[in-house]
Design brief:
There is one protein chain. This protein is mostly helical. The protein starts with 15 loop residues before the first helix and ends with a helix. It has helices at residues 16-38, 45-56, 62-69, 73-85, 107-115, 119-123, 132-148; strands spanning 60-61, 89-94, 97-105. It has a domain at 16-112: Orthogonal Bundle (Arc Repressor Mutant, subunit A). A hairpin with a 2-residue loop joins strand 2 and strand 3. Helix 3 crosses helix 4. The protein is built from seven helices and three strands. Strands 1-3-2 form a three-stranded antiparallel beta sheet.
């Protein structure tokens, strides 16, 4: 932490490993901000991410949700299990592929959209030290980094 600003973590990445450490710190802060904004809804960030996908297009396959959330199918299954027990989603047979199931919103899950903050609302004003041009440049650099990672 900086002596002049106790809340400020000093990061000055000089290599790719340092950049990844910085991205990890940014992600932790974003999740903290997200938790703060959705805590009244009794949702986790993962559940909120899945709901956002289903609000956009209801009836998604497990593999698509896992891919979007950048996690494994077993992880998504656990999150969906909890959401199902909270009556937010159901599992239904996929009419196009009998081997797969679709995750669909219940009425309760659909209604939650009206109460959940939009991403833009959550992050609005959180980063006053960065302007629109910098945001766009950062987005382009991060996309380039993402596209170059070989897994």
């Amino acid at each position: 932490m900086s002596e002049n600003n106790p809340g400020k973590v000093l990061c000055n990445p000089k290599n790719l490993a340092g950049v990844f450490e910085l991205i990890t710190k940014i992600n932790r802060r974003y999740e903290k901000l997200q938790r703060k904004n959705i805590q009244d809804l009794n949702l986790t960030p993962s559940q909120h991410m899945i709901l956002r996908q289903l609000w956009e297009s209801d009836g998604r396959q497990f593999k698509d949700l896992a891919e979007y959330c950048e996690c494994t199918r077993p992880t998504i299954t656990g999150v969906i299990d909890t959401m199902e027990s909270n009556l937010l989603v159901t599992r239904e047979s996929n009419p196009k592929d009998r081997r797969s199931l679709l995750v669909k919103l219940t009425d309760k899950g659909k209604d939650l959209k009206n109460d959940a903050p939009q991403i833009e609302t959550m992050v609005n004003g959180c980063c006053s030290g960065i302007n629109q041009e910098e945001i766009e440049s950062l987005g382009q650099l991060l996309q380039k980094l993402l596209d170059s990672i070989n897994c």
